[in-house]
Amino acid sequence: MAEESGDTDTDGDGELEARLADQETFDPPESFVEQANVADDGIYEEFEENWPDCWERAANLLSWDQEYETVLEDDDAPFYKWFTGGELNASANCLDRHVEDGAKNRAAIKWEGELGETRTYTYGDLLNEVEEFAAALRDLGVEEDDVVTLYMPMIPELPIAMLACARIGAPHSVVFAGFSADALATRMNAADSEYLVTCDGYYRRGDALNHKEKADKGLRGVDHEVTSVVVDRLGDELNHFLGNSAHDYDELIEEHAGASVEPVSRDAEDMLFLMYTSGTTGQPKGVKHTTGGYLSYAAWTSHAVLDVKPEDTYWCAADIGWITGHSYIVYGPLALGTTSMMYEGTPDYPERDRLWELVEKNGVDIFYTAPTAIRAFMKWGSQYPEEHDLSSLRLLGTVGEPINPRAWKWYYTHIGGENCPIVDTWWQTETGGMMITTLPGVGTMKPGSAGPPLPGIDARIVDTSGEQIEAGDAGYLTVQNPWPGMLRTLYQNDERFLAEYWQEYSDEESDEWVYFPEDGAKIDDDGYITILGRVDDVINVSGHRLGTMEIESAIVGVEGVAEAAVVGGSHEVKGQAVYTYVILEEGQGDSESMRERIVEGVEDAIGPIARPEEVVFTPELPKTRSGKIMRRLLEDLASGEELGNTSTLRNPEIVDEIAARISDSD
Ligand code: ATP
Ligand code: MG
């Protein structure tokens, strides 16, 4: 990668930056409010008063083959059921009804490959190919309720396969393409999945990656027979050879050209898909999502929070291999009949302005990404977005981890042109959709705080005994009533479902069920929630409990710092001490004065108790393939312990480098 020089954060508009730096709250622009899908703050009260019937607003965004009888059934809590008696098909909701409503020629998916080739599927095209592939899957033997594993990168055949599965009532289990062969095998075995759809390869930074080889290796670890289909993404670039029992996607489509497949009416509570969580911690969990509740919730949050309208070009720059891509590239946006963008490659190929070039070229209205990406853009500098006209943007969003105020303000200024609200959306694989965020047409934004719980969501911050805590104090995030998008169980493991999420704060005797997402949080006087990170990311220094995210936010607030990770390492006297790993912006030397400014920054923001024991400068942090920092490795390094499993890391080589830097500074 080319070296950039100079201070990348003040680029001629230092005055503006200085003003924004002091500003704590931001209101959505009038022009946004005027056109917002939800602009009336009465919605919070409306949902509270009519709960759970308020959720009919979500269900009404869909077309049902059979109207539901009951909104919520809670007899067997926490195994809740939503919209019972109702029947629907997800692919019909994402495709057929739009085609019938006259949107046949509207773009449904606009795809761009890394090398620049483009493909546009109208709603009509997408429906045709989904029907053809659905017919092919049936011919291969796929029956209703069979789990089909999809191991594919960001190519249009992935959403096509998802919708084809949904059409015939076969739940899909998407395994992120960056995952290893072992990860594929584990997930296929866990789900007893006898069908695999994969591809020959894909492009990353201009290189053709051989994906098929990895898929084949994974298949050798599967303990039952598998029928597989291979998509030819690379043409001649890689030898597109098929294994013994593999079928060629293009041939199947040709054989089933023009096929029509009636969408199967699924019970609202039938499984739509299975999604294994990224596994930042422990064994992967097979999260089960349903057809009626999940799809209503994905559509509702896309409507209310992302403000999606059919005429928009909407871009969630996540990977479909994560829940974010399921809910906010595929199901939510397509259920609303909008144009959803997909990009195959990396944001810095061939240049660091690739995403902004795509925004300009496609006139993107709504852009949704992760804080880790925003911090990378910030590190690269604002000259890249400045090369492009980003004025088509109306709304920005973030998800995945807390966004520190400095990155928030950079996003607001340099991408949003100070004219787009930002929704900082807290949610999880398990919640199916967004839970805590401002409504962009209603709420004041506070950088660093996700916002209030969405209408109808009863999120509260409690102490260890489950008592609600005072505004300002740190505690544990809980959700005290169910919602339609919630996971129904962990696949074939009800016991673990209860133990993971419901044991901590529920009172089984009195049938009071409290969902525990395992995140720490605090709340302010306005009811805004700031997420502090996973509960196991709390450091206990001499009896004081410190949130790692809060310290990280203080560090990245220091001029010249691009990214930071904070963990607790064992300390003889204090029990635990604060260890910080810091990436500097390009051109910034890791001098002693930098170290001092970081220590001061933490002391000023949190107090001397949080004073870092050690500041380690590093060019990268160990990250999972979903871009999350793997803190337990950094903890092992800080405590000088033997390192745990590094197999899910994207950059395992960095671990040795950090270890060397720690021993250097001793
Ligand atoms: P695993 O559960 O397998 O360890 P994971 O929790 O990283 O993996 P996800 O479901 O993708 O898998 O991530 C959800 C978590 O991400 C949340 O519990 C929270 O810790 C964090 N998160 C998501 N969005 C936000 C946000 N806007 N602000 C703060 N944290 C967030
Ligand atoms: Mg999690």
Topology (elements, then pairings):
Layout: H1 14-22, H2 30-35, H3 42-49, H4 56-59, E1 70-73, E2 81-84, E3 87-88, H5 90-103, E4 107-112, E5 118-122, H6 123-139, E6 148-150, H7 157-167, E7 172-174, H8 181-190, E8 195-199, E9 201-204, E10 207-210, H9 211-220, E11 227-231, E12 246-248, H10 249-255, E13 266-267, E14 271-276, E15 286-290, H11 292-304, E16 313-316, H12 323-335, E17 339-343, H13 354-362, E18 366-369, H14 371-380, H15 383-386, E19 395-399, H16 405-415, E20 422-425, E21 459-462, E22 474-479, H17 494-501, E23 519-523, E24 529-534, E25 538-541, E26 544-547, H18 548-556, E27 561-571, E28 575-584, H19 592-605, E29 614-617, H20 631-639, H21 653-665
Parallel strand pairs: 4-17, 6-7, 6-8, 7-14, 8-11, 11-12, 16-17, 16-18, 18-19, 19-20, 28-29
Antiparallel strand pairs: 1-2, 3-13, 4-5, 9-10, 14-15, 21-22, 22-23, 23-24, 25-26, 27-28
Helix pairs in contact: 5-6, 5-7, 5-12, 6-7, 6-10, 8-9, 11-12, 14-16, 20-21
The structure holds adenosine-5'-triphosphate and magnesium ion.
Enzyme class: ligase
Family: Belongs to the ATP-dependent AMP-binding enzyme family.
Protein name: Acetate--CoA ligase
Protein described:
The chain is α/β, with parallel strands linked by helices and 666 residues long. Strands 5-4-17-16-18-19-20 form a seven-stranded mixed β-sheet, sandwiched between helices. Strands 12-11-8-6-7-14-15 form a seven-stranded mixed β-sheet, sandwiched between helices. Strands 21-22-23-24 form a four-stranded antiparallel β-sheet. α6 (123-139) packs across α7 and α8 (181-190) crosses α9 (211-220). The longest helix is centred in the first third of the chain and has 17 residues, at 123-139. The two termini are 31 Å apart. Bound molecules: adenosine-5'-triphosphate and magnesium ion (MG). Magnesium ion is lined by residues 277, 428. Adenosine-5'-triphosphate is lined by residues 277-281, 322-323, 399-402, 424-429, 450, 517, 519, 531, 533-534, 628. Residues 550-628 form the AMP-binding enzyme C-terminal domain. One of its GO terms (molecular function) is acetate-CoA ligase activity.
